[in-house]
Amino acid sequence: MALLRMKFSGNRGYGPDQVDSMTLGDLLEVVQEAVIEWGEDATFAPYQTNNGHGANYGELDAYDLFEEIPAEGD
């Protein structure tokens, strides 16, 4: 069974409009490609690629992964 790194860059902006984003469809496509390449039982750990000072690995909370960003002025 493979252990993978899910690479991400943290601390890239002060608001969501300052960073590049992707659609859920694009995310699903990348995950499906990874499943095809490494299998459904492969595990992964999020890995922050731009943290030169400290821990680079994190975790995802599968039960609270997404939340809506309120529109400005709300």
Written description of the protein model:
- With 74 residues, the protein is α+β, with helices and mostly antiparallel strands.
- The chain has one domain (1-12, 20-59).
- Helix content is 20%, strand content 16%.
- The chain has a two-stranded parallel sheet with strand order 1-2.
- Strand 1, helix 1 (24-38) and strand 2 (43-48) form a beta-alpha-beta unit.
- The longest helix is centred in the middle third of the chain and has 15 residues, at 24-38.
- The protein is globular, with a radius of gyration of 15 Å.
Keywords:
16% strand; alpha+beta; 2 strands; 74 residues; two-stranded parallel sheet; 1 helix
The number of distinct helices, counting runs of at least 4 residues, comes to 1
Low-confidence stretches: none
For the residues shown, what is the average pLDDT? 91
Helical content class: 10-25%
Give the strand content: 15-25%
C-alpha-based Rg, rounded: 15 Å
Counting DSSP E segments of at least 2 residues, the number of strands comes to 2
How many domains? The number is 1
